[in-house]
Amino acid sequence: MDQRERRALEDEHRPEAIRRRLGAPQRAETVPDAILGGIDGCVTTFAVVSGAFGAGFSATVALVLGFANLLADGFSMAVSNYESIQARREHIQGVRERENHHIDAVPEGEREEIREIFRRKGLSGETLEQVVAAITEDREVWIETMLTEEHGLQSEGLSPLRSALTTFVAFLVVGAMPLLPYTLASLGTNRQFLASLAMAGAMFLGIGMLKSVVYRQPMVRSGLRTLLMGGAAAGLAFLTGHLAQAWFGVAP
């Protein structure tokens, strides 16, 4: 670690910086939703393109099937993401209400749970009792501590609508890329597929590299891993289309 990085790290850990960072409201995390939507959108449409090309269908069929799947699957994925996060929020609220009821019904038992939680963290004696007293003095702090420490639940940063919209937009934007070459009638079928292949590969590689920047992972390895996963899905679709034509008499 060089001197510049060390100074920046020290500045981030000054008391006022820590208070400001921890006191700021936690925002909903949209990057995972965008990455998930983008990868799934690109896989979905390029799998359709690969399957159509493998079966020998025309560019028009590939384009129609691709856009139909793009809209339908994008909407379905956005709704699924919305329902999943909404269900998590409702579960957390249910646990919160249950803990609130337990504090009213068996306060000493709930204090003992707090005591045991922090005893397992290595506290004991007078220090442990002071921590228990400080936490149980504030009901909201008490409940939040039970949520995070006993149940492992985090209530902040969950936004069903934002997650759903982020997923849907990323799905549409990235998923449309492999379909663009099929809108160019001047290209032959083989060139359309190769251009779509190159576009999809660029999308997979770009998403993987973007993910590495956000989460501070090795850029090349992350990009290649995403490219290989997307390529595997497209290869399966191509093989399925080709075998369907050969085995079941599917004709273009």
TrEMBL record:
Keyword tags: Membrane, Transmembrane, Transmembrane helix
Keyword Hydrolase: no
Compositionally biased tracts (Basic and acidic residues): 1-19
Major site of localization recorded for this protein: membrane
Membrane-topology descriptor: Multi-pass membrane protein
Residue intervals passing through the bilayer: 164-187, 193-214, 226-248
Positions of the UniProt region annotated as Disordered: 1-25
Subcellular compartments: Endomembrane system
GO cellular component: endomembrane system
GO molecular function: manganese ion transmembrane transporter activity
InterPro entries assigned: Ccc1_fam (IPR008217)
GO biological process terms on file: intracellular manganese ion homeostasis
Name the record gives this protein: Predicted Fe2+/Mn2+ transporter, VIT1/CCC1 family
